[in-house]
């Protein structure tokens, strides 16, 4: 019986090497680490205090959270500060405000990748001021946030290493002019390799400017651009390796093949 109980006893998690424990903890979301995991034991708390633990931050939307929105924003900012300048990759869903962006800018001089998802609390001014302090950004993903060509121009002028831009929109808004956004991208992001503008109905002029002034572009999603000329469509097909066009152009191509 004694041997049986010994064989069914689980492993002692405190015996794991620190680097392995850190690897396991990093698989949790930021909220779970800060509110639960770091309270398990002193060893886990010390690991969570290590700035290198926060090179990558994922702050996902928390359903039915007992914390108010502003408290969750504060949690996010506190975690960013814990990185002590080691932050390289950040992914924030819902809880990013101008204050959060300022915190990222003040602590993320090595930031290379940024995801902002459904963060309606950010403004052009807050975004523009932040990216001016983030020159190493190479990948920016903006999903269902509302920023205009002002922010895109600041991003392009401040981040010469930018290779990937994904900016998805729910629906057109008065504050977002697709043509001006396309021109801002074309004028300030010549080194762009991947561009995804799903949800934006870019004009013929805007798409042409991007094709002309982003010579190393490999992938382009303009699946919500419905009124491109045949000449420009053909040029996009010839020039871009991975091209996502509107459904109407795909149907036209299929009819031509039949």
Please tag this protein with its features.
258 residues, disordered C terminus, eight-stranded parallel β-sheet
Briefly characterize the structure:
It comes from Medicago truncatula. The protein is of the alpha/beta class and 258 residues long. It has helices spanning 2-8, 18-25, 30-35, 42-49, 69-82, 98-107, 124-131, 149-158, 178-188, 204-213, 230-239, 247-257; strands at 56-59, 89-93, 113-117, 139-143, 164-168, 194-196, 219-221, 242-244.
Please bin the fraction of helical residues.
40-55%
Give a count of the beta strands, DSSP E runs of length 2 or more.
Answer: 8
Counting helices, strands and paired strands, the structural category is: alpha/beta
Q: What's the gyration radius in Å?
A: 23 Å
Instruction: Sum up the overall morphology in one term.
Output: elongated
The low-confidence parts are 254-258
Please give the alpha-carbon distance between the first and last residues: 75 Å
Mean pLDDT: 87
Q: Main sheet, how many strands, which sense, barrel? A: 8 strands, parallel
Word description of this protein:
The longest helix has 14 residues. Helix 8 packs parallel to helix 9. Strand 7, helix 11 and strand 8 form a beta-alpha-beta unit. The chain is about 45% helix and about 15% strand. The protein has a domain of about 90 residues. About 30% of the residues are buried. An 8-stranded parallel β-sheet has the order 1-2-3-4-5-6-7-8, with helices on one face. By secondary structure, it is α/β, with parallel strands linked by helices. InterPro entries: F-box-like_dom_sf (IPR036047), F-box_dom (IPR001810), LRR_dom_sf (IPR032675). It comes from Medicago truncatula.
